[in-house]
Amino acid sequence: MRxxxxxxxxxxxxxxxxxxxxxxxxxxxxxAFMLRRGFGLEGEFTLKYFWMLTSNAVLRASLFNxxxxxxxxxxGCSLVVFPFAIALQRLAFAGRSVLTSLxxxxxxxxPFVGAIGLKQLLAxxxxxxxxxxxxGWMNPKHPVDWxxxxxxxxxxxxxxxxxxxxLLLSVSAALAxxxxxxxxxxxxxxxxGWGLFRTITLPLVLPGWFAGAIIxxxxxxxxxxxxLITGFSRVTAVQIFDAINDLNTNPQGFSLIxxxxxxxxxxxxxxxxxxxxxxYATLARGHSHAADKPATPWQTAMIWSGAxxxxxxxxxxxLSVILSSFAGRWFFTVLPDSWTLENYQxxxxxxxxxxxxxxxxxxxxxxxxxxxxxxxxxxxxxxRSKLKFAPIxxxxxxxxxxLPGLVLAFGYFAGFEINAxxxxxxxxMIDPRVNPTFLLIVSYSIRxxxxxxxxxxxGFQQTSELxxxxxxxxxxxxxxxxxxxxxxxxxxxxIGGFILTFAFAMLEVSDSLIxxxxxxxxxxxxxxxxLLGRIDPHAxxxxxxxxxxxxxxxxxxxxxxxxxxxxxMGQIFRA
Length: 575
What we know:
By secondary structure, the chain is mainly α. The protein folds into two domains: 38-340, MetI-like fold (Orthogonal Bundle), CATH 1.10.3720.10; 341-575, Orthogonal Bundle (MetI-like fold), CATH 1.10.3720. 71% of the residues lie in helices and 2% in strands. The strands form two sheets. Strands 1-2 form a two-stranded parallel sheet. The radius of gyration is 25 Å and the shape is globular.
């Protein structure tokens, strides 16, 4: 028997009403508030604030730099990704599966933390230049300024090394879905090398590249933590961060947010339109390993050498952070002069640093719990309810992926602070200047909800409905079936999704830096930023120790999630 068409039961209706209110208050309202304020602080409709953006040299340069930064980052990621993606999909060589996993490692290394190490490496008299001076390859009086142009190239390097795995996943998936017969037919007609890539491979892989490139572009365009750490302030994200201090008198922050929102959403729309007008379908799907060409020993050596060099570059900033966390003194030397555990001791002895770990753990745990409840409910309604508007729920659940964290955090700060001032009884709850706990939890939850929904949907879709149908045939209610049959079967997916949402919330940057205003409420990332801003020369090493602890928490969480979910983990990042 088949399960009957689901009707909108009272429980379903209550869930949808609750979900609708939650998204209306914490997703729609902040965006609508920023749009309204962007066109006038006093309720009027005017475009003068946007014209002022073009007349302000600093804001104009910041917008240009952000666009250039994102575009160069996408270009850099593409140049890195395509050779490795093609090699991994086209050539069979020893250790291919291991190398594929290793190339994704930088994705779990937070760029915010790596930026701290980058400054130590690429300063004018940092470790890299001192190493070259020691070898006699560089004039000690004229070291190379790797962070020239205010740190533009330093940010580009760090973002390329951190974000290329996102593009690698997308391009690899697109290459795997190309029918090998198409390439073989083109080769039989004389196509080879660049001509084969340009006429066959590139057009077919373009949708996958576009999907990954959009994520990388928007991530780079709205990245706040990396430019702040490297000191590259002439970017839109940093200008928005600085505008928080005068929200009620200066409309420029709202205008910048509207621009960022328009660019992000517009880019998604344009990409869908461009790709949707052309057909990229192939007659067959799935990668045929029989069509893989065995790599020669020379090709295998080149692939492994190139990948090793890339991984060394990608992990070097984080290695620098680890070294700094154990450094007693590190000044004008390639490596630290002395080693100590005092930095870690201070992390656990100082009230501010130790409480930041507890704060992050609390915020991330509660937000992941909220996502667990919403994700299971949405996952069931999308895959099992048979409701006609289930695809709309799916699209709604993925909506936070299209909105940068910077935009939502700014909307929360501005929108709820003003309402708290108007309603005194809400001040201690929703005013981030008084107590940001509630808003931090909600913002973490909204940002990571798509991950939990995808984890739940992956579990539901890969679990047969036969057991649920048998349960229904014996008279079990849908709730009993869900509780006793379905949830135990997909528990690995749900636990893995919970761990992922928890792990990424632990190291959230934009929400933490903007919403946390009092030190006793600081999460890990805000406390690290606070330490780096102190005059005390010992504070950066303590920040690095805190960063290492954060990296260990993230890596441990992702390893556990990967063991629970296996290959199904990749579906979480599919919009």
